[in-house]
Amino acid sequence: MTVKQLSEQSGFSAVCLPEPDREISGGYCGDLLSWVMGRAKADQAWITIMTNMNIAAVATLCDVSAIILSEGVQPDDGVKEAAEARGINIISTELPTFEAAKQLARLI
Amino acid sequence: MKRAVCFIRAGSSETEFIMSESLRFHFDVNGQSFTSAGQASVQVKKNLRELGIPAEAIRRVSIAMYEGEINMVIHAHGGEADVIVYEDRIVIILNDHGPGIPNIELAMKEGYSTAPDNIRSLGFGAGMGLPNMKRYTDDMKIETELGKGTCITMTVKF
C-alpha cells in the first residue's frame, strides 16, 4: 500500500504528501525519539503523538515512508513545511495509537 | 605528500576535499535552537548517500551523530561536528565547550539523564543518547574535562 492510498482510507487524512507513492512496508509505534530512531526501519510508517520539529529530522534519519500522527494531534508550526522540504509524508488520524496500528496492519 | 584541497560552502556546513586522503564535512551546531538540531545529521546523511556509502553505515552514522547533536544543544550550548569519510570507515568527531561530563560511567547507563523537563516533553532526555551513540558505532571515545568541554570520537566501519 502506498502512503497516498493510506491517506485516502476512512479515518486517515493527508497533512502533507511530498512523496505520495512511497510504499509502506510495516509500522512502528513510539514517542520517545531516541528509541524510535534506533528501532524504526526504513519504509515503515511511524505512528506517534509527538508533534514538534524534531519528528521531521527523526523521520528523515530513519527513512520512514510516513509519519502518522495519531489521537488527533496536529503538527506544530513549521513542521509541515519542514516535512514538505525533506520529502517526509505526514498523515493524521483521530484514532488512538493502538487502533491506528491495528488498521495499518490490516491494510498493508 | 601533495594535497589538493577545496572548500564547498553550503549553509552552515563546509566540505573539505583532500584528494587521495579523505573527505571531511564540518558543521557548526547551533546551541540556541533545539528545534533546528539535526540539520547537520540530515545533511551528512544526504552527503553520504551521494557518495554511495552502504545504507546501514549511513543509518548508524546519522543516528549516532543526531544523538550527539541533541546532546550538544541540551548540555553544551552547541559545538562543532566533523565527519571524515575514509575508504572503509567514517569517523565522527563532536567537540563542545560545555560543562563536561562528571561521571562517564553513569552517563553511559541507559535511562540516566540530566536533561531538564522541557527537553523530555519534546521526546528526548530519556538517557538514551550516549548509549545509542555507543550502540550504533564500532568505536567510541569520550574525552571530557569539567568546565572545559567534551570531545567524542566515533567510528563506523563498513
Q: Could you provide a short overview of the structure?
A:
The complex is a heterodimer of chains A (108) and B (158). Helices cover 37% and strands 20% of the residues of chain A. With 108 residues, chain A is of the alpha/beta class.
In which range does the helix fraction of chain B lie? 25-40%
Largest sheet of chain A: 5 strands, mixed
Strand content of chain A: 15-25%
From the spread of the alpha carbons, the general shape of chain A counts as globular
End-to-end separation of chain A in angstroms reads 6 Å
Q: Total number of β-strand segments of chain A?
A: 5
User: What is the architecture of chain A at the second tier of CATH?
Assistant: 3-Layer(aba) Sandwich
Written description of the protein model:
The complex is a heterodimer of chains A (108) and B (158). Chain A is of the alpha/beta class. Chain A has one domain: Udp-n-acetylmuramoylalanyl-d-glutamate--2,6- Diaminopimelate Ligase, Chain: A, domain 1 (3-Layer(aba) Sandwich). Chain A has helices at 3-7, 33-39, 54-62, 79-86, 97-107; strands at residues 12-16, 26-29, 44-48, 66-69, 90-93. In chain A, strand 3 (44-48), helix 3 (54-62) and strand 4 form a beta-alpha-beta unit. The longest helix of chain A is centred in the last third of the chain and has 11 residues, at 97-107. Chain A is globular and about 30 Å long. Chain A starts with a helix and ends with a helix. By secondary structure, chain B is an alpha+beta fold. Chain B has one domain: Heat Shock Protein 90 (2-Layer Sandwich), CATH 3.30.565.10. Chain B is 32% helix and 34% strand. Chain B is built from 5 helices and 7 strands, in the order E-E-E-H-H-E-E-H-H-H-E-E. In chain B, helix 1 runs antiparallel to helix 2 (55-76) and helix 2 (55-76) packs antiparallel against helix 5 (129-135). Chain B starts with a strand and ends with a strand. Chain A binds chain B through residues 31-35, 37-38, 42, 50, 52-55, 57-58, 60-63, 78, 86, and chain B through 34-39, 41-42, 45, 55, 59, 62-63, 66-67, 70, 122-124, 126, 128-129, 132, 135-136.
